[in-house]
Amino acid sequence: xDSILRKGLFLVTFTGAMTAFPATVKASDTVTDNIMPQVGIxxxxxxxxxxxKQIEVEDYLVPTQxxxxxDMAFANVQSFLYIRSEPTTDSEWVGxxxxxxxxxxxxPVGEWTQVQSGSxxxxxxxxxxxxxxxxxxxxxxxxQNSGTESPDEAFTYAESKEEExxxxxxxxxxxxxxAEEEASAKAGTGQAIVDYACQFIGNPYVWGGTSLTNGADxxxxxxxxxxxFGISLxxxxxxxxxxxxxxSYDQAIAGDIILYDGHVGIYMGDGQIVNAINSSRGIGIxxxxxxxxxxxxRLI
Length: 300
Hints:
CATH architecture of the largest domain: Alpha-Beta Complex
Number of domains: 3
Number of strands: 16
Number of helices: 6
Radius of gyration: 40 Å
Mean pLDDT: 83
Shape: rod-shaped
Helix content: 25-40%
Strand content: 15-25%
CATH class of the largest domain: Alpha Beta
Strand order of the largest sheet: 11-16-12-13-14-15
Largest sheet: 6 strands, antiparallel
Order of helices and strands: HHEEEEEEEHEHEEHHEEEEEE
Low-confidence stretches: 1-46, 53-65
CATH topology of the largest domain: endopeptidase fold (from Nostoc punctiforme)
Structural class: alpha+beta
Distance between the termini: 104 Å
């Protein structure tokens, strides 16, 4: 009688457990929940009949652990992937996923997939994301390569349209400030070069000379002035035509050099150059446009 009762109780318990834990499969899953083991049900029942111990059905079920990153997606693109407000290319874009940026899948995977990434929720075209096992593998690789203590720090998430606009505005502002700072530094250095060169106004012009005090020709004068600031220049005007960066005369600043046919001078600003003019005039100042300009070169 006890054996029959135990059989009945086991079957009721087993049936109830199977009802309470139905097997389900999600799109991104690769295993099915509550799979029965390879051992036959007859052996399970035999164990029950021959033993007085209480046998729990859970002891004979294979537990399934879902992959930690199976609900993630990664942008599989070269440039960026739009996150759109609706699952259509006609809808407004609300964010962007750049290459390998991460998102969480929050809707069914079809032609379009609903995702959440950062502060952005919307739809991405499914052909351009990694999902399922591929996403899990990608996530594990990124976590391993990141060397961070927190796995979340290995992933980068989407920017909203507003966040992108704010970032671009900030970057533009920082770039402008940096350019202004560099221009100011160049202007300061250029003016220092001009100030140094002007100390030698009135000194003699000597063909082939490079001495700022005892005499220099036009290229020797320019070469020696820039050497004082650690800038090495070739000896002849023809070779100087290819140094530094070319700029237009309209863009010339103090410290640029201006080259003519067989002559060179240092631009002072205000349309003037300081240069070794000739044997009769020595080192002095001329209008920058006293003759045709071949090129203006920036060295700083």
